[in-house]
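Handout, section 3.2

Students often ask what a structure token actually looks like in practice. Rather than define it abstractly, here is a full record for ABC transporter permease. The first block is the sequence as you would receive it.
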Amino acid sequence: MTVLKTSMRNFFAHKGRMALSAIAVLLSVAFVCGTLVFTDTMNTTFDKLFQATASNVTVSAEGSSDTGETTSRTGKPPVMPASVVGEVRGAQGVAKAEGTVFSTSVTVIDAKKDKLSPNSGAPTIVGSWNGNDARTMKITSGTAPRGPDQVMVDEDTASKHHLKLGDDIGMISVVGTHHARVSGIAAFQVTNPGAAIFYLDTKTAQQTLVGRTGVYTNVNVIAAKGVADAQLKKNVVAALGHGYKVQTAKEVADANQKSVKSFLNVMKYAMLGFAGIAFLVGIFLIINTFSMLVAQRTREIGLMRAIGSSRKQVNRSVLIEALLLGVLGSVLGVGAGVGIAVGLMKLMGQMGMHLSTDDLTVAWTTPAVGLLLGVIVTVLAAYLPARRAGKVSPMAALRDAGAPADAKAGTVRAVIGLLLTAAGGWSLYVAATADKAKAGSGWLGLGVVTTLIGFVVIGPLLAAGLVRILGAIILRIFGPVGRMAERNALRNPRRTGATGAALMIGLALVACLSVVGSSMVASATDQLDKTVGTDFIISPDNQQLIKPQEVAAVKSVPGLARVTEYRPTQADFTTPDGKILKDTAITGADPTYATDLRTKTVAGDLRDAYRPDSMSVHQKFADDHGIHLGSKITVAFRDGSTAHLTVRAITSDDTVIDKGAMYTSLATMAKYYPAGRMPLDQLVFASAKDGQQAAAYKALKTALHDYPELTVRDQTDYKKALKDQIGQLLNMIYGLLALAIIVAVLGVVNTLALSVVERTREIGLMRAIGLSRRQLRRMIRLESVVIAVFGALLGLGLGMGWGATAQKLLALQGLKVLDIPWPTIITVFVASAFVGLFAALIPAFRAGRMNVLNAIATD
């Protein structure tokens, strides 16, 4: 009980310092809990949606996916004859069966030709209004569609795009563009995660999406009372026979949830990874806090030992303080985590994915994980200072208010740090010189971890050297105040090293990712300049395909020298070595693609691959299967027939664009695909006649104005789009890393604040002999800047080393240009100095307000 009282007294005696450490724990726990609550809420939302929208049993056409998606490479959904509905109705246990048709391969536009499709990646669905939808949608205004000129839209989409009854809407499908006016608006009875849904009457939907009536994509089956879904499925299968996909409501929901979870898990574990980085940085803060508090209480600890307290009791006293800190920070962090989750939901709402707080899900495991992580991390971080406190002998502590230095321990630490750093450097060297990316990536990971640990361990040694150099460059110009700031930073190299290491971790990751991202952009730009011989690239948005009427619009543009179509598909290959390779990618293109993309070959001429019944393979594929020029490969096209194609060219793997692609001609593909089964274009390339590039660019944009899902880019546009995409990804990562940097800044603040308290008597004496408040504040600010710049130098240097090594591995994939983003590096370095100034504001202000006499009288 005495130990507990002592711990409580010490905890509240330093509540200001503890508060800063608690904030670090709070932020880290909040990020973990916020991530868990957010992803659990998304899972709950989708679970409710899938369960509510699925009928007892769903019958789909052969070729439909398990998730019910009706997209296909032909642009038309797989369909079945209307007679299937009658057969299903005759099955035992069926109360109702209704045929529906819908598709996600549609672009919807308003009267101004603006897209009504979501920007969040959610689908745009156009389908027939049916009884199953009537269960989950409520018509809030107008009526359901009753003719070819009517369409009903969901309320969320109508609100977002300011649609009202009577507005014109165009639906662009592979069949053509169908126009209708809004006849009604329907609201979801469950949360809509962001899909845009448009309803037509059944006959109009069939004509618009498929081009003919008398067909359905799905049959929704309602079970008679008392009939289980599993039994109903068996009865329907017995009535229909094979050739159809029959699923229960649970199977449809599970398939949909599986596809959603694959996305959510990537996001979840990425965010938890950044939370882990914040925890790691927080460990340095907590270690520093308790180390300094223990050092300040050395004489008090000596008195406790002198009157009978054991080492274990002293140790336990410090750990109880850490436990209190961990519990307080974790409890507040759990609450803040729920707030973060709500904030993320609002942010997703701005992006078009609607998540209702009614579905907010806080599982019991979330606060449990948050509390457990926060407490364990805090107690573990405080263990070393607590152990050091317990080892202080009573007489030594009573003689000196400061903790005695352990020269032997410092030497051992320096040796271990040097060995770890050397081992990490060797690992990075092995990674950079690896012949295969897979092997090199393992060495890269090992090198990153060991160099990071090595720099942390060797931090005091590096601080002693680098701070002197920084002092000579930055601080000496400030005269005696600068020299005092330098001596203060050098007074305890271990503390300076730990504080700088906290900042180093976040900045090392920033530098590494900046180098990798910049090198990827530079390499891709270099490849575009060397290999792309076309003027314009036409591509669709949201993984759509380019429809025939859109290709025709491109070909009608005057001033074009050539237009090249590009159609990837899949096939089962049987190679000369007898191996069967399922679902292998092969691309059909016009012969002019050999000019549009100047792909190097190691054998043959790529133009020959576009001859009838011919193809190309890439070098690795040829080596793996013993293929040479003239070899025959049996190619069973998906949804088509089987061809025996002759290899006319072997392309080099030394490329980035279309790396690993295998080509054949569109004429060859058309020969083995029946009418209506030919895949649509994924891309279209166009080149202008000499001297007409500007006019052709403008004409292309004009010709495709009615198809807003298509984007026309010249090479400059394409490079900018690539840079913007990577830049957006990096900005998001930098935003997540900001959490770790904020925690590191708190560490600098805490270190300075405790350092000021530790030097109270010294500060009083300096003030007494003439040091002004302004000079005192400047001294503390300069000390802070040096510590921040020291951490920035370590982090940026380490990160650039990691990034350069990673680029060497990317070079094996064709990304051969190393580009150091010096503007970013310099900006981060300068910003670090400002971080140091910011961190010193409060400690410097408090130091300046000290009463001189009281400070001198401090023991």
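Discussion prompt for tutorial groups: The chain has a mean pLDDT of 85. How would you have guessed this from the sequence alone?
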